[in-house]
Amino acid sequence: MSLLSNSSALLGKELRTEFRSRELLTTTVVFIVIILVLFSFTFDPTSDESRRFGSGLLWLAFLFAASLMLQPCFLREQTNDTLAALRLAVADPFAIFLAKLVANTLFLLVTELLLLPLFAVMYNVPVLPVLPQLVLVFFLGSLGISVAGTALSAISAQARMRELLLPLLLLPLLTPILVASTEVTSGLLDRSPYVQWKGIGFLGVFDLVFLTALWLFGEYLLEE
Amino acid sequence: MKKSASGALAVVVLLGAAAYASFFIAPTDAKQGLIYRILFLHVASAWTGLTAFFICFVANLLYVWRRKPKWDWLGVSAGETGLVFTTVVLVSGPIWAHPVWGIWWTWDARLTSTFVLWLLYVAYLLLRTLIEEPERRALLSALFGIFAFVDVPLVFGSIRWWRTQHPQPIIMGEPGSGLDPLMYKVLFFSWFAMLALMTLLLRQRYRLEAMRGDLEIIQRDRETA
Questions:
Q1: For residue B163, which residues of chain A lie inside 8 Å, CB to CB?
Q2: From residue B19, how far is each of A74, B24, B37, B41, B199 by CA, in Å?
Q3: What is the pLDDT of residues B43-71, one digit of tens each?
Q4: ipTM of this complex
Q5: CA-nearest residue of chain A to B116?
Q6: I want to staple B25 with a disulfide (CB 3.0 to 4.6 A). Which of B21, B75, B169, B181 is the partner?
């Protein structure tokens, strides 16, 4: 019980910090818009072409954005010297991770949903008929990105060259998320949309495996 | 010194015998001709690389559990050795593929997942160079090694399920199907020789890492004194 109350208190802190400045959300949204615009130059974005490549470029943009967005997650605690205090404040260090990964999932999901209409308009793909299914894929994908990303940002925050290091550690690790999410999304953006339950199940398994790994090994990531 | 020299000599003899067996004892493939003989090196290296990565994973777990520097040394040595063998796989593969498939590279499941595996361990070794303090480096890289190894089946699974809709550009049937019994023997012997080479490399690399660890302790003591 203390795990949940601890992490909900910490989650409140994460959300307050972000919504006071809105730095992270604004920067990430602008970053993804830039990627989406730049991608349009690399192929001819007619409706048919977008159906073929759209889902992949959307998820690549999310992955790149996440690898930058997750940087400050532990770095902020380290530069403000608040990590030791956080560790003392909670009984189970997993509460810190839980709060941070829920916050990161929310931030990612909000960003993705803000950008979805823009993507639909710019690349000529209707998304409204499959919106609930898309939200499900976005949620499962973002959860996986956040679980692995939160763990790795605790590692990269303690190293040199951390800005470069996080994408380097994270992106190969997220290959399964990229493959599965792209596959499910492209099924949903198809002319006759269909849901690939195998892919959704796979995303669920990925999330579960990494949540378990984080639960088992998370405390060691925060050792002094 | 004498012991390790005779060990090295034994490995050289084994490797020579494996090369002889692959070139002269194994029968020539009816369809591929001579080029298939590189597969004895290729497949044996792939299996050996995976063995090394598994050793790395076990060493990482043991380090997190026990915190003895020796597990860290074994982890980095196995990671590096595995990377060397996987590099051999990634180089020898295209050399075989070009005459047989007609292309150097294709984004097929096995190739792609091996490449991602290679990248994960490159990241593991890079991470180690970017953390100064020995204990922290050992712990954090061990944790990343664990996450990376846990990721491997997911990478293989996802790529195998979704990236092989295209027919595989293999002229003959499934690899491994209908292999000549003598070819099997040569293949397992090559694997054995490669494992011996891996053990040798691992031991040497471990000794180097142990010396480096001792040196770090001496340097730290001098700085604090």
A1: 179
A2: 52, 8, 9, 8, 18
A3: 999 999 999 999 999 999 999 999 999 99
A4: 0.91
A5: A172
A6: B21
